[in-house]
């Protein structure tokens, strides 16, 4: 019995020690777990995010920019479709601390030069360690040979609250866009929430911007702290990185198009704005010297020269608009075909316009630049209303707070440009025009002046009469709105003159007829008119 007790005690002790062993092993494992969990966020901190690409110095260079939360080196690995060899390119890393306490502070930039037009490339970005490798993305370099249609997505004023960002991302995956142009007011604002809004926005558009060059220009919402977030988070052609705050403009040739991107904010600060004007002058003169190879010149800057919004504080509503004052003559004398802006949260298209006058009421062989304002992706931030007192240069407006619109620009060849605007909620067509220009030139060069007897007031009057069926003579003789529209004025005077002559020549007959009608029998006798009812 005692022996048995002894044995069972031994057994008990044995089990107890096994139990202790198991517990200690488990505890150790748990401790290890804690250590590995401490390591886990490290890879998270090094995970590349906000990947976006843009053109480098030329349209066959690509710059890839991304962000991480911890410091790392910057590497891009890329290859073509046939995957024959993977090339590695290294770049630079900088840290953005200003207004970026909670953001991913480490920004990476790698440039890949001299890629082949029309070829599809696949790439990943990464840091030092293999486990920082990003998903794979691809982009196709724009083809340059004649006969290729160049397609671009264009809009201004988009942020994280814009409802249809996901649609736009999907749209760029479906349709082949050479580039996306976001004409200022990016993210509202890149530095908000200590940098988190900028990160959120760039992650929202990553699927689009990692595959299609995302070309930007600065808007008023990028101005804080000398554009610092804009200058660090993006890298635009021909500019060093971070982009210099006194040189936020660039130009780029894609196919038959010379794009000129400028910074309208310089006109609204005390900064020196002459250097941009000088640069524009030189750049556009050089572009005109190559006009046969680059027929189309398209300029984009955040604030428009013309607009019909009801908010009279806006520069573009003013007689002395600063943007217009500095740029209109320059763009006219350098033959800029199309000017696209954002800033106002609606859509407006003008006729070919110069000095607040429509030069024609169609887009065939325009004699001046066409202006387009497309900032309606920003309506969630502020809805813009159009004014009733629109200038004659205004051709079309959409100021619907429920519509978030984007533009699709297609250049078919040297003579044909197609512009359409679509609703990003249902992809419905909202507007379209063809601009047909067979003689691209500085517009002041050969002004073949064919007077239009109707003038633009007359044209507009006919158009309005056509539209609503009313015969608005009141408007026609209203006087003051004619301005220097001498064509319509002369036509009106001519008609008055002709009526006067007719009256003078036939005054007797006319007076007799009037008398006959008004005073009945007496004058009829004098007239010797045929007898009525046998009476004399
Ligand atoms: C340019 O493209 C348009 C639209 O596709 C076409 O109608 C026109 O014939 C083309 N012109 C030339 C010179 O190829
Ligand atoms: C057109 O404008 C430019 C720039 O102001 C000027 O140099 C040129 O002489 C003008 N050409 C004509 C024909 O007026």
Note down, in words, how this protein is organized.
The chain is α+β, with helices and mostly antiparallel strands and 536 residues long. Helices cover 31% and strands 23% of the residues. It has 12 helices and 25 strands. The protein has helices at residues 2-46, 165-174, 196-204, 206-209, 224-233, 274-289, 322-333, 455-468, 473-476, 486-505, 507-519, 521-527; strands spanning 49-55, 62-68, 75-80, 87-90, 92-95, 106-112, 120-126, 137-140, 150-155, 158-159, 179-183, 186-187, 214-217, 250-254, 257-261, 296-300, 338-341, 347-350, 353-354, 357-358, 370-374, 394-398, 405-411, 416-423, 429-436. The strands form 6 sheets. The protein has a 7-stranded mixed beta sheet, with helices on one face. A 6-stranded mixed beta sheet has the order 13-11-9-23-24-25, with no helix packed on it. Strand 14 and strand 15 form a beta hairpin. Helix 6 runs parallel beside helix 7. The termini are far apart.
Essential attributes:
Purple acid phosphatase, hydrolase, about 525 residues, acid phosphatase activity, about 30% helix, 12 helices
Oligomeric category: single chain
Query: What would you call the structural class?
Result: alpha+beta
Number of E-state strands: 25
C-alpha Rg, in Å?
34 Å
Give the termini separation. 165 Å
Q: Per the principal axes of the C-alpha atoms, what is the gross shape?
A: elongated
Quote the beta fraction.
15-25%
> Which percent range fits the helix content?
25-40%
Instruction: Describe the main β-sheet briefly.
Output: 7 strands, mixed
Mean pLDDT: 87
Number of helices: 12
The kinds of small molecule bound in this structure are:
2-acetamido-2-deoxy-beta-D-glucopyranose
Side-by-side strand order of the widest sheet: 14-15-16-17-21-18-22
């Amino acid at each position: 019995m005692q022996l048995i007790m002894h044995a069972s005690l031994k057994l008990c002790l044995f089990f107890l020690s096994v139990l202790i062993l198991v517990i200690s092993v488990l505890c150790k494992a748990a401790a290890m777990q804690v250590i590995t969990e401490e390591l886990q966020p490290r890879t998270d901190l090094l995970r590349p995010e906000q990947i976006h690409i843009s053109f480098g110095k030329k349209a066959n260079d690509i710059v890839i920019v991304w962000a991480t939360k911890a410091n790392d080196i910057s590497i891009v690995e890329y290859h073509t479709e046939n995957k024959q060899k993977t090339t590695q390119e290294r770049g630079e890393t900088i840290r953005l601390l200003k207004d970026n306490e909670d953001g991913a502070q480490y920004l990476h930039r790698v440039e890949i030069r001299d890629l082949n037009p029309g070829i599809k490339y696949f790439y990943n970005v990464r840091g030092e360690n293999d486990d920082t490798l990003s998903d794979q993305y691809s982009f196709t370099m724009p083809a340059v040979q004649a006969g290729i249609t160049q397609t671009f997505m264009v809009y201004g004023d988009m942020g994280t609250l814009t409802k249809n960002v996901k649609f736009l991302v999907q749209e760029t995956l479906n349709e082949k866009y050479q580039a996306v142009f976001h004409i200022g007011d990016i993210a509202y604002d890149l530095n908000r929430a200590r940098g988190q809004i900028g990160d959120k926005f760039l992650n929202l558009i990553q699927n689009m911007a990692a595959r299609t060059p995302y070309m930007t220009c600065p808007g008023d919402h990028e101005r804080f702290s000398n554009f610092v977030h804009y200058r660090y988070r993006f890298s635009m052609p021909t500019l060093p990185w971070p982009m210099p705050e006194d040189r936020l403009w660039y130009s780029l040739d894609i196919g038959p198009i010379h794009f000129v991107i400028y910074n309208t904010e310089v006109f609204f600060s005390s900064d020196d704005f002459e250097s941009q004007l000088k640069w524009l002058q030189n750049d556009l003169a050089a572009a005109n010297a190559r006009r046969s190879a680059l027929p189309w010149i398209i300029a984009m800057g955040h604030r428009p020269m013309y607009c019909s919004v009801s908010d009279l504080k806006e520069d573009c509503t003013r007689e002395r608009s600063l943007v217009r004052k500095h740029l209109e003559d320059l763009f006219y004398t350098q033959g800029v075909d199309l000017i696209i802006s954002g800033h106002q949260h609606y859509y407006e298209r003008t006729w070919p316009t110069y000095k607040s006058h429509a030069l024609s009421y169609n887009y065939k062989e325009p004699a001046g630049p066409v202006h387009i304002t497309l900032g309606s992706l920003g309506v969630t931030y502020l809805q813009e209303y159009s004014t009733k007192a629109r200038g004659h240069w205004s051709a079309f407006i959409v100021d619907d707070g429920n519509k978030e619109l984007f533009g699709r620009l297609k250049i078919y060849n040297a003579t044909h440009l197609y512009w359409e605007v679509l609703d990003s909620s249902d992809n419905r067509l909202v507007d379209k025009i063809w601009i047909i220009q067979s003689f691209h030139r500085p517009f002041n060069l050969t002004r073949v002046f064919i007077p239009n007897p109707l003038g633009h007031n007359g044209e507009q009057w006919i158009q309005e009469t056509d539209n609503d069926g009313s015969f608005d003579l009141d408007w026609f003789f209203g006087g003051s709105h004619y301005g220097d529209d001498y064509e319509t004025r002369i036509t009106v005077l001519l008609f008055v003159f002709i009526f006067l002559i007719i009256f003078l020549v036939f005054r007797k007959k006319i007076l007799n007829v009037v008398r006959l009608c008004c005073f009945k029998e007496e004058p009829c006798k004098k007239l010797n008119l045929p007898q009525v009812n046998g009476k004399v």
